[in-house]
Write a structure and sequence with these properties.
Layout: H1 11-45, H2 49-77, H3 79-98, H4 103-131, H5 135-166, H6 176-190, E1 193-196, H7 204-227, H8 231-253, H9 267-297, H10 302-308, H11 310-327, H12 332-350, H13 359-387, H14 393-430, H15 438-442, H16 444-451, H17 456-495, E2 526-529
Antiparallel strand pairs: 1-2
Helix pairs in contact: 1-2, 1-4, 1-5, 1-6, 2-3, 2-4, 2-7, 2-14, 3-4, 3-6, 4-5, 4-14, 5-10, 5-11, 5-13, 7-8, 7-14, 9-13, 9-14, 9-17, 11-12, 11-13, 12-13, 12-17, 13-14, 14-17, 16-17
Length: about 525
């Protein structure tokens, strides 16, 4: 069979990529900027502890819970339409959040931001899938998209710190307004519309089941991270998994399922989803401890800690941007495996960090971790999206984003439980005589607060013991993470070995490989509408 070369993107598509990069940058910034504003919000709105937790968490909960529904909705109504509607809603909700006059109002507006945010990420990624048909160009485009996510995560604390030093706390929410205005102006001109007109109606029962399943699992992971394993976390996890089983069973009976389970029969798709989930797990769990190390062990301010975190973001950007060039010559599975080995080296270096020294070592290790995870994040995302048919790009993009959210939650819960378990065990044996503060036994932050209430000598002894216990927890967590990274490297090399260089986006394998895919034209039901439609 004579294969037809995929059309290459023009200047218009690359300019459109710059437009799509803006909401990606914003979403990543919005995930980190609010934490710096907590003291100012607390002083102004005086929320209860429960309200403050909801202000912090409701955004991420709804983003995670609605990704699958919004990704599939975009396939049905049009990805550009959903993106622009979400951008308008995000801009309005940002203004409402910035000028909230009560804690209750801020909780509601943060929830609206979460709903709007869930429309942005799968829409941007699925539009990239439809704008860049050439596999090599699409890999580069997705790497740029992933790099913007890393840049946004790094800029959040820095820009947020600057704004909070000069303006009121609401200014942190207004960052997104000009970005959304630019997207609304340029989007209709530069972005194509694409929908699957044969997809059928959106199954609302499936949408509700997916929302409940993801929310309860994420909430269970949050409870584990904060309080360890208990009856509540187990109950929510069982509920979430049970609802997830009902969701999967329902998809098998529907003519137009919310998630096409056939996607997971493609080995490239399913293996890449697992790699992305567990890889983000390792990254998120490690960052949980490194950021606390910078602030609570070395006493850096949040802004200073953000600056010292830049090498990690720089490493992630470097890894993501060099991955396409490497994958054009080397099999993507081997590129991902090599990156994970680099990440494992960085994680192993963290085991050498001490409470008295090691700032330079930690920063170097973080840079290596970022550089090693970058290829996995970029190529793994590309493999997931590229393995799916174009008419299912929204659903595939949503699955990619959902695996990232779950990986982040699992990393904080699983690795956090290991690290803090080590801390609690160690501090129980080294707690200074006469000190019986329970908060100090639970976390290093609690120990720092408790030390301020003690005499100078007792406080110093408590801090020394707590910091050494925390560093031991960090070292154990890093060692476990390094082992997981090596295991992932082996799996990537073994299970993705048949994906050929330069073919990451097609899921192409060797001539007789199990993943061999012959590019086919889009089904008749899927159609691309001109940008001016």
């Amino acid at each position: 069979m004579t294969s037809v070369a995929a059309p290459r993107a023009s200047r218009k598509e690359w300019t459109g990529l710059a437009v799509l990069a803006m909401p990606t940058l914003l979403i990543a910034m919005d995930m980190t900027v609010l934490h710096l504003a907590v003291p100012a919000i607390t002083a102004d709105l005086q929320p209860s502890t429960s309200q403050m937790l909801w202000i912090l968490d409701i955004y991420g909960f709804l983003v995670a819970g609605l990704l699958i529904t919004m990704g599939t909705l975009g396939d049905r109504i049009g990805r550009r339409k959903l993106l622009l509607a979400g951008a308008a809603a995000f801009g309005v909700a940002s203004v409402l959040a910035a000028f909230s006059t009560s804690a209750e109002m801020l909780v509601v507006t943060r929830a609206l931001l979460g709903v709007a945010g869930a429309t942005l990420m799968p829409s941007t990624l699925s539009l990239i899938r439809n704008m860049f048909h050439d596999a090599a160009q699409r890999t580069v485009a997705i790497s740029v998209w992933m790099t913007c996510f890393a840049v946004g995560g790094a800029l959040g604390p820095l820009l947020g710190g600057f704004l909070l030093d000069h303006f009121w706390w609401g200014s942190a929410f207004l960052i997104g307004v000009p970005i959304m205005v630019i997207l609304l102006v340029l989007g209709p001109v530069l972005l194509p519309e694409h929908r699957d007109s044969g997809a059928g109606r959106l199954d609302l029962v499936s949408a509700l089941l997916s929302l409940v399943a993801v929310l309860t699992v994420v909430y269970s992971l949050k409870l584990v991270a904060e309080h360890g394993v208990g009856w509540q976390s187990v109950a929510f996890m069982v509920l979430g998994l049970s609802v997830g089983v009902l969701f999967i069973r329902r998809q098998k009976t529907l003519a137009d399922p919310l998630v096409d389970l056939e996607l997971f029969r493609e080995r490239t798709f399913s293996v890449s989803a697992v790699l992305l989930t567990v890889g983000i797990l390792v990254m998120a769990g490690s960052q949980l401890f490194t950021l606390q190390y910078l602030q609570l062990v070395h006493g850096l301010s949040p802004l200073q800690a953000g600056l010292w975190s830049l090498p990690n973001a720089a490493g992630l950007m470097a890894g993501a941007m060099t991955a396409p060039a490497l994958a054009a010559k080397i099999r993507p599975g081997f590129v991902i495996a090599g990156g994970l080995v680099v990440a494992a080296v960085g994680l192993a270096m963290l085991t050498l960090v001490s409470a008295d020294a090691g700032l330079g070592l930690l920063v170097t290790a973080s840079a290596l971790m970022g550089a090693g995870i970058g290829p996995m994040a970029a190529l793994g995302t590309d493999l997931i999206v590229g393995s799916a048919p174009p008419e299912r790009a929204g659903a595939a993009s949503a699955i990619s984003e959902t695996t990232t959210e779950l990986g982040s939650g699992l990393g904080i819960a699983v690795l956090g439980s290991i690290g803090f378990g080590v801390y609690r065990s160690e501090i129980g044996d080294t707690m200074p005589a006469g000190v019986h503060d329970e908060a100090a036994r639970e976390s290093l932050g609690g120990a720092v607060a408790a030390a301020g209430k003690l005499s100078t000598q007792a406080g110093a002894e408590l801090l020394t013991a707590a910091r050494e216990a925390f560093v031991l927890g960090l070292q154990v967590t890093a060692l476990v993470s390094a082992g997981v990274a090596v295991l992932l490297a082996v799996l990537a090399a073994a299970l993705l070995r048949e994906v050929k260089p330069g073919a990451a986006g097609h899921g192409e394998a060797g001539d007789a490989g199990p993943n061999a895919v012959t590019p086919q034209p889009a089904p008749q039901g899927a159609r691309e509408v001109p940008a001016d439609a």
